[in-house]
Specification:
- By secondary structure, this protein is α+β, with helices and mostly antiparallel strands.
- The chain is 44% helix and 18% strand.
- The protein is built from 3 helices and 2 strands.
Length: 71
């Protein structure tokens, strides 16, 4: 897992490349520039990772998704 994180962080430095990662791992989400939460095939919330991740983590600690649906 650590090697995967290192690879993603190296790829992030190259602004000419893009990478789409689908994950539930908080550590992977922390290095994302953008995050989109998709529920039932619809984007429910999207935006800069630094804005979206705290909302997701707050919802997880409360036991509910911040977009109004149970995890």
């Amino acid at each position: 897992f650590a090697g995967l994180i290192d690879t993603f962080e190296q790829l992030k430095q190259d602004k000419d490349k893009g990478l789409l990662v689908i994950s539930h791992q908080e550590r992977l989400l922390e290095i994302a520039d953008e995050i989109a939460v998709i529920v039932d095939g619809k984007v429910r919330i999207a935006g800069p990772g630094k804005e979206i991740l705290p909302q997701l983590m707050a919802g997880e600690k409360a036991g509910a998704c911040p977009i109004g649906r149970e995890w």
